[in-house]
Amino acid sequence: xxxxxxxxxxxxxxxxxxxxxxxxxxxxxxxxxxxxxxxxxxxxxxxxxxxxxxxxxxxxxxxxxxxxxxxxxxxxxxxxxxxxxxxxxxxxxxxxxxxxxxxxxxxxxxxxxxxxxxxxxxxxxxxxxxxxxxxxxxxxxxxxxxxxxxxxxxxxxxxxxxxxxxxxxxxxxxxxxxxxxxxxxxxxxxxxxxxxxxxxxxxxxxxxxxxxxxxxxxxxxxxxxxxxxxxxxxxxxxxxxxxxxxxxxxxxxxxxxxxxxxxxxxxxxxxxxxxxxxxxxxxxxxxxxxxxxxxxxxxxxxxxxxxxxxxxxxxxxxxxxxxxxxxxxxxxxxxxxxxxxxxxxxxxxxxxxxxxxxxxxxxxxxxxxxxxxxxxxxxxxxxxxxxxxxxxxxxxxxxxxxxxxx
Length: 406
What we know:
Blueprint: H1 9-17, H2 34-47, H3 53-66, H4 70-82, H5 88-108, H6 112-125, H7 135-149, H8 154-167, H9 172-189, H10 195-208, H11 213-222, H12 228-241, H13 245-255, H14 260-273, H15 278-294, H16 297-317, H17 324-335, H18 339-351, H19 358-375, H20 379-391, H21 397-403
Helix pairs in contact: 1-6, 2-3, 3-4, 3-5, 3-7, 4-5, 5-6, 5-7, 7-8, 7-9, 8-9, 9-10, 10-11, 11-12, 11-13, 12-13, 13-14, 13-15, 14-15, 15-16, 15-17, 16-17, 17-18, 17-19, 18-19, 19-20, 20-21
């Protein structure tokens, strides 16, 4: 029988709040569904570099706990414990973060004595309130976790990696993280004054790490308008040599405006490797849309029917995946011939609105708006839905479309 907890629940919570771990970092997960983040993270963990594996496993534990999956959360932490850092300080920092996550999970399960035991372990690892030598490694873990959630965390991730590099300026892993954070920050804000610095950072990583295809596809995207030849060369290399489904997805998106056939080929190859990656199906639906829009009039119906057949099969085969955006594209294809069925799909998603991420809610409102405007010929209803989309405080392409006057 476990001894009684020494601290009151309030005292325990106060100590937990002071820890450095995923539960205290305010990672900004609220705008996404846990299901979406976990599916995305599962792919990243399988294909990640050694340098951020521990951060991603800790993040996975945090997301499982948010999703009320305590046993899965503990399994993720056990996997994190098996991951060994080569450097002693990095290893100690990782252990501190893991222990902090354990403490929080036990606390949220109501196992207060176990939570206290984890706090004691933290105290043993780091007797002083802050060991300055551990700060850069903790900040780096936080930075990688922020980047794994969303691109709009890029600025905060930059701050983390900059702090880490102030204390360890020669650390290659920290420099890699900073380059990725710079790109994410630029990609979500499109500030032209940062473009040169982002390019310098990415080019250095690409030169130092020729197998870092994520950095290469980021650089390809960045160079599209200034060095088309180099940009295309990098994108080709990524599509041909990378086995990372996320890199292949980004490669397909790069090729989509140039050749939908090439983009489709890349997506299909990625799906053979990772058929459970929901964002590939989203990219596939987008590719079908581009094919349909660009096709000659006599070919449009054939493309639309094939897209409907494929997307319906995907939705039926993968009921456990977050396929909201693919379903919305399917509805648009169906609506060209059967508006009533299109409306039915929107109503089905509307009934699940509380489970949808903010981005998906925006997309649903935008789709409703287009439906009322073009199918139902009800401009007032359309306006209400467009305003509903814009009122959701998340900067996305859906909100941008509405803001530009749809």
